[in-house]
């Protein structure tokens, strides 16, 4: 694979980060995972802005503009002959050596990595995925709001915890037993025709698709609430689903072994998925065609 590294394309095996980079030494780095549909980068501006906000707080200069992101992604897609793809953009703080640094990181490193999308069978969107509550609790975010940060240890430990389980997403609760999110997804549930999702203050990643789905739902007339919810709320829900940029909207068929919505996608989840697929591209949100 060809990878974009600091402005040029190189073979992925030649791309090197130095051990004095603070992305490596201290986890001071950010990433975004984007999806490309037929050459169109979905919600590019939202991904860019999420990283830019976090970078500002971390003192890292966004040395690539959104247009440069788009060009870099398009170059990398072309070099790898991909039109539908998973894209990862990484920003690593820079080569400052040992010792915490309070200055501004003016020379960060950029990587853009692309690969084919995983194959998601239609069955996944009809019958969904299981969910189990994790022993690992969601830790508190690094700042006021969780960044999509290179420090992914909490998620890594969670993933190891459920490594033997097939077609299953782990559910993080907070230390106070509130619902938080999946290991790599945001959580939604429907009760009495109201759409609920855990509040950002539970320490979740403010997902691009979480926000997008809330907007779609509100526009279609649904009441949407963000709040502090318990496992009981989820166990009594009529429908449960997960969102992320790559997998879109995935129904949940069971929580801790208890079947949800007869084990098939519920009607509101189905409507939102249809709307999502209709609206995710061609919105003029920065995702011009490659
Ligand atoms: C922990 C976590 N929460 C939520 C999300 C969803 O974010 P997005 O909708 O921007 O993909 C992700 C994405 O990977 C994630 O890792």
Give short descriptive properties of this protein.
six-stranded antiparallel sheet; 290 residues; binds pyridoxal-5'-phosphate; 28% strand; 15 strands; nine-stranded mixed sheet; D-amino Acid Aminotransferase, Chain A, domain 1; D-amino Acid Aminotransferase, Chain A, domain 2; alpha+beta
Walkthrough of the structure:
- With 290 residues, the protein is an alpha+beta fold.
- The protein has two domains: 2-116, 2-Layer Sandwich (D-amino Acid Aminotransferase, Chain A, domain 1); 122-279, D-amino Acid Aminotransferase, subunit A, domain 2 (D-amino Acid Aminotransferase, Chain A, domain 2), CATH 3.20.10.
- 27% of the residues lie in helices and 28% in strands.
- Strand 10 (186-191) and strand 11 form a beta hairpin.
- The longest helix has 15 residues, at 44-58.
- It starts with a strand and ends in an 11-residue tail after the last helix.
- The structure holds pyridoxal-5'-phosphate.
- Pyridoxal-5'-phosphate is lined by residues 33, 155, 181, 184-186, 204-205, 207-210, 243-245.
């Amino acid at each position: 694979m060809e990878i974009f590294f600091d402005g040029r394309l190189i073979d992925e095996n030649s791309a090197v980060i130095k051990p004095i980079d603070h992305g490596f030494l201290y986890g001071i780095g950010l990433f975004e995972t984007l999806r490309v549909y037929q050459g169109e980068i979905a919600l590019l501006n939202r991904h860019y802005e999420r990283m830019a906000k976090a970078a500002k707080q971390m003192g890292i200069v966004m040395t690539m503009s959104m247009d440069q992101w788009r060009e870099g992604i398009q170059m990398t897609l072309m070099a790898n002959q991909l039109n539908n793809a998973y894209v990862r953009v990484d920003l690593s703080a820079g080569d400052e050596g040992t010792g915490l640094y309070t200055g501004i990181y003016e020379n960060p490193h950029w990587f853009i990595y692309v690969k084919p999308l995983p194959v998601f069978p239609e069955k996944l969107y009809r019958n969904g995925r299981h969910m189990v509550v994790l022993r690992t609790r969601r830790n508190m975010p690094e700042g006021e709001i969780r960044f999509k940060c290179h420090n992914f240890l909490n998620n890594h430990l969670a993933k190891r915890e459920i490594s033997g389980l097939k077609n299953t997403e782990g559910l993080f609760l907070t230390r106070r037993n509130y619902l938080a999110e999946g290991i790599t997804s945001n959580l939604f549930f429907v009760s009495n025709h109201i759409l609920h999702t855990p509040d950002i203050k539970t320490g979740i990643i403010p997902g691009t698709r979480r926000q997008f789905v809330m907007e779609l739902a509100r526009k279609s007339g649904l009441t949407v609430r963000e709040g502090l919810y318990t496992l009981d709320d989820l166990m009594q829900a009529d429908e449960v689903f997960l969102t992320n940029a790559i997998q879109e909207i995935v129904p949940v068929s069971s929580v801790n072994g208890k079947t949800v919505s007869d084990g098939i996608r519920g009607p509101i989840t189905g409507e939102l998925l249809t709307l999502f697929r209709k609206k995710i591209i061609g919105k003029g949100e920065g995702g011009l065609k490659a």
